[in-house]
Design a protein that fits this description.
With 343 residues, the chain is α/β, with parallel strands linked by helices. The protein is built from nine helices and 19 strands. Helix content is 27%, strand content 27%.
Length: 343
C-alpha cells in the first residue's frame, strides 16, 4: 500500500497478493495495459459472486432507462465473455429488455443500419462515438442514450439531446470497481453510487486529505462485498465531487457529480477534455484526435477542417496549429481518448 491508500501501482506490482481466493474460485481475470513506471500490466480478479453483483447493479440502473420488451443496442468495445457488454446484456435480460451487442463503432454506416433494423429504445456507448452516430444518422432517435467508458463532454450531451431528441444519461465505472460504479436516474441530479458495494470518498489529490461533500477532488473507493480482490481506499485518478441532499427521485445518499476526467490528462497543457468541449460543440466536426509536440498542436479531424482550424487558432493562440484530415478515434477495448504528447 502507498500510505493509507491502494494505488494502480500496487495492483500492478502485488496483484496476485491482493487476490483472496484460490485460482479455482476465480471466474474472470481482466488484464489492462498500463503506461506505469514498470511497464507491466494490471490484472484484476473476479469471482462468480463479484460479477453477479455487477449484473445486479446493471439491471437496477437500466430500469431508469428501459423495461420489458425494449430493444437496447450495446455499443461497448469489450464484448468478451464476462466483459462489460456481456454483463450489461445479462442485466438487461433480467428486467425483460432485449439486448443487442454491437461492440465499439468503427463503421458508422453499418451501425446506423443496425439501429434502423432493431429500432432501439435505448443505446449504450462511448460519448464521442454516439455523438458521431447521431450526426451521421439523425433519423434514429432512441428514447434514451447512456454514455459510459470515457469522459462525457457537456457539448456531447447537448448535441445528442438536440439531434436525436433523446434523454441522455451518464454512467461512471472502471474495471477496478467491478465495471459499475454510479449511474444517473431520470432526474439527472447526479449519478447514484453502488452504496451496497462501494464506500466512496473524495480526497485532495496532493495531500490525501478527505474533502467534504461538495468539494472537487480525486475519487477514492473501498469495496464492501468483493470476494476475489477487495480494494481498500483505491485511488482512481479521476476528479469529481459528491452531491449531498435528497435527489428528486427520493434517494437520500450522496451522489457522484459529473467526472471532470483523469488527473494525468488534466495536467497536460491542452487536455483532450478541453478540446472535446470546443470541437464537439460544432456539428461540422464529426470526430478528431490530437497530439502536442513542443509548440505545435496537431489535430486530425473528421469533418470541416477549416472550421476546426478557426476554433483552435482562436482558443490556443500560443500554439502553432496544424489541422489534418483524419479517421477519428477508434477503440474496441478500454482505451480512452487522450492528448498524445510527442517529442
Amino acid at each position: 500500500m502507498t500510505g493509507s491508500f491502494t494505488t494502480a501501482e500496487d495492483i500492478i506490482l502485488r496483484g496476485a497478493e491482493l487476490c483472496r481466493l484460490s485460482q479455482k474460485d476465480i471466474r474472470r481475470i481482466i488484464t489492462l495495459k498500463t503506461s506505469g513506471s514498470t511497464g507491466a500490466n494490471k490484472r484484476l480478479y473476479f469471482s462468480d459472486k463479484d460479477l453477479g453483483h455487477t449484473v445486479d447493479f446493471f439491471a437496477e440502473g437500466m430500469r431508469f432507462m428501459c423495461g420489458s420488451g425494449d430493444a437496447v443496442l450495446i455499443c461497448m468495445g469489450n464484448t468478451a465473455p464476462d466483459g462489460i457488454a456481456t454483463l450489461l446484456s445479462e442485466g438487461l435480460e433480467r428486467i425483460g429488455a432485449r439486448p443487442y451487442i454491437y461492440g465499439g463503432i468503427a463503421d458508422y454506416k453499418d451501425a446506423a443500419a443496425r439501429c434502423r433494423e432493431i429500432r432501439p429504445h435505448t443505446i449504450v456507448g462511448l460519448p464521442s462515438q454516439l455523438r458521431r452516430l447521431a450526426l451521421e444518422a439523425p433519423d434514429i432517435q432512441p428514447d434514451n442514450v447512456l454514455l459510459s467508458a470515457d469522459y462525457v463532454a457537456l457539448s456531447v450531451i447537448e448535441t445528442l439531446s438536440r439531434i436525436w431528441h433523446t434523454k441522455v444519461f451518464t454512467h461512471y465505472g472502471l474495471t477496478e470497481s467491478g465495471l459499475g460504479f454510479a449511474v444517473q436516474c431520470p432526474f439527472l441530479e447526479g449519478q447514484h453510487i453502488r452504496h451496497d458495494e462501494l464506500s466512496v470518498e473524495i480526497i485532495d489529490p496532493d495531500t490525501g486529505e478527505v474533502l467534504p461533500v461538495g468539494q472537487w477532488g480525486e475519487i477514492v473507493f473501498t469495496t464492501l462485498r468483493r470476494e476475489a480482490m477487495p480494494l481498500y481506499r483505491y485511488r482512481t485518478g479521476d476528479i469529481s465531487r459528491l452531491i449531498g441532499g435528497v435527489c428528486s427521485c427520493g434517494h437520500d445518499k450522496p451522489r457522484l457529480d459529473r467526472v471532470l476526467g483523469r488527473i494525468t490528462e488534466l495536467k497536460k497543457p491542452v487536455p483532450i477534455y478541453a478540446l472535446d468541449e470546443l470541437l464537439f460543440a460544432c456539428d461540422d466536426i464529426l470526430d478528431f484526435t490530437a497530439s502536442l509536440s513542443s509548440k505545435t498542436l496537431t489535430v486530425s479531424v473528421v469533418g470541416d477542417i477549416k472550421k476546426a482550424e478557426e476554433l483552435l487558432i482562436k482558443a490556443y493562440p500560443q500554439y502553432d496549429i496544424k489541422v489534418l484530415a483524419g479517421s477519428g478515434f477508434i477503440t474496441h477495448g478500454t482505451k480512452k481518448r487522450a492528448l498524445e504528447i510527442t517529442e
